[in-house]
TrEMBL record, chain B:
The lineage of its organism: Bacteria, Pseudomonadati, Pseudomonadota, Alphaproteobacteria, Caulobacterales. SUPFAM superfamilies: lambda repressor-like DNA-binding domains (SSF47413). Residues 9-63 form the HTH cro/C1-type domain. Transmembrane segments: none annotated. The keyword DNA-binding applies. It comes from Brevundimonas olei. Pfam families: HTH_3. This is Helix-turn-helix transcriptional regulator.
Length: 154, 66
């Protein structure tokens, strides 16, 4: 019985140390990203001007860091916390998506000018706005559903 | 939202004079999870039910009553 308690505690401590190590790694990566200013070699001309090696290293490192950080964060959650996130992802995210999408379409059909005056009124800008609006609605739906799950179980 | 089971988690915890936080730490879950379990608003997974059973030294059916 005690062995299991120690195992649970040790696993949580190991998880935290790994996340701390990852954070230190990201800090080191940021230093490399800022200081390595040479252009990235073998960059295809068709893709335009080559970014610096530092920027490429930083972007790739950030992607790996976020994926690993998410993995360890998820592992550190207990089963009820995971259930809350899964429930919020499905119900809150999907209902938010539907509501947000419908709101954008209805507003567009009603002739509402959705783009701020400062932005260029192009098709690309309209698509970007639609994506951002739906993403925001999903995030709001997720947050509401997550809070609701825990409030219902207090 | 309420579970189909009655559970005696709170009774066994009180017998040992543990707080919800104490029990949460021993089971490797959050205090909020213990609260939800005790109120019968969340059913534990089988692995967690076995951990609870081992921790209290009682069979699962003595803790979770249908």
């Amino acid at each position: 019985m005690n062995t299991e308690i120690i195992t649970v505690g040790a696993a949580a401590a190991r998880n935290k140390k790994t996340m701390d190590d990852l954070t230190v790694g990201l800090c080191a990566l940021t230093v490399v990203g800022v200081s390595a200013t040479a252009a990235t070699p073998f960059w295809p001309e068709a893709w335009g001007r080559a970014p610096s090696i530092g920027v490429v290293v930083l972007a790739a490192g950030l992607a790996v860091f976020l994926a690993l950080h998410t993995l360890y964060w998820w592992r550190a959650l207990d089963e009820a916390a995971r259930e809350a996130h899964k429930w919020a992802w499905w119900w809150g995210g999907n209902l938010g998506l539907v509501a947000g999408g419908a709101a954008v379409v209805i507003a567009a059909l009603a002739g509402v000018n959705l783009l701020p005056a400062a932005l260029p009124h192009t098709d690309a800008a309209l698509i970007a706005l639609g994506v951002a609006a739906v993403f925001a609605a999903q995030a709001v739906g997720y947050g509401i559903a997550w809070c609701g799950w825990w409030i219902a179980r207090r | 939202m309420t579970s189909a089971f009655i559970n005696r988690l709170k009774v066994f915890r009180a017998e040992r004079d543990w707080t919800q936080a104490d029990l949460a730490e021993r089971l490797g879950v959050s205090r909020q999870t213990i609260q939800a379990l005790e109120k019968g608003r969340y059913d534990p997974s089988l692995p967690l039910a076995f951990r609870i059973s081992r921790l209290f030294g009682r069979p699962i059916e003595a803790i979770f009553i249908a």
